Amino acid sequence: MADSGPLSADGNLPADFAVPSHVEEVKVQMATFAARHSAAGRVVVLITSGGTKVPLESRTVRFLDNFSSGRRGASSAEYFLELGYAVIFLHRHRSLYPFTRLYSGINLLDSLQLESGMGGCSSGQVVVVDQQALPNIAKVLKRYQVVKDAGLLLSVEFSTLSEYLHLLKAAAQALSPIGSKAMFYLAAAVSDFYIPVSDMPEHKIQSSDGPLQISMKMVPKMLSPLVKDWAPQAFVISFKLETDPSILLERARRALDTYRHQVVVANILDTRRGYVVVVTPDTQVELVLTDEEASRGVEIEDRIVSNLSVAHSQFIAQNQAA
Ligand code: PAZ
Questions:
Q1: Ligand 1, closest atom to CA 190?
Q2: Each residue of 266-283: pLDDT tens digit?
Q3: Which residues in the chain show pLDDT less than 70?
Q4: Which domain covers residue 65, as residue numbers?
Q5: What is the distance in A from the centroid of ligand 1 to the CA of 99?
Q6: Is residue 5 part of a domain?
Q7: Can you give the pTM of this predicted structure?
Q8: Fewer Cβ within 10 Å of end Cβ, the chain: N or C?
Q9: CA-wise closest residue to 37 among 110, 89, 87, 101
Q10: Binding site membership of 303 for ligand 1 (Cβ less than 6 Å)
């Protein structure tokens, strides 16, 4: 999550960030989802996932993006669902998605075959899935259908930084009424920098104008108003990514000190699939996958989610006792 420039005193985003036309409608959907599941005794997690797109031109031809695939968010969503959470999945358009992520590298047409059909099929042929090409597809499909039929997964998409910021604020306000039963799992890789609309050319930047120099402003801090104002009773986890291991833990601790939320999950770009540190104000737990576990398909998100769900239960119990 970006920890950079200021937000106005009333918690409004600068006018540079256009309000998406559907934000109020999505906020109502999220609030209804949270209220329904909370009333049914479930806890609710809002997962952010994927990178953000920062436009360089108003009629955008070019934009700045980042490395995030959305795999952490998508796989974590599945593990939260397994543990009984209802999940709001706020994700970058076309980033990895729960369940379908398992088949993202596969050409769909290579996994289907035409076979002669039985009587009722008008074309005389049926399309059959090659289960070798889609490993565990029957099990995954069954699980997906259970989740879908029970309405346990609410999908919300963003593409640009503006959309992400407004939708996150709306999500925080929508989940606030369920208090400590809400968890925020902020795994998206959000740009720390943007170009204000007033500084942006309307039309495509021309290479004939010579080398391009851009100056970018700091993206407002969202974690601060989220924790203080928008969802003050929620259990909040931010992620901290670095490339230099020597500064990782200091940065994670600094984020906890600054924003006063509950957990930072710290990771390094190259090792993020097999190693993270779960940092709280009082503890620091390393989660590590061995090569053997990784080769069996164990995922570190399983460990992260187990660790955090235990901490969340304790947090809820403390809040109820207080
Ligand atoms: O999306 P992904 O699975 O490729 O990567 C996950 C991640 C590195 C984006 C996430 O673990 C993370 O650290 N997010 C926060 C990044 C940041 O410091 O802004």
A1: 19
A2: 999 999 999 999 999 999
A3: 1-10, 118-122
A4: 23-99+149-321
A5: 19
A6: no
A7: 0.95
A8: C
A9: 87
A10: no
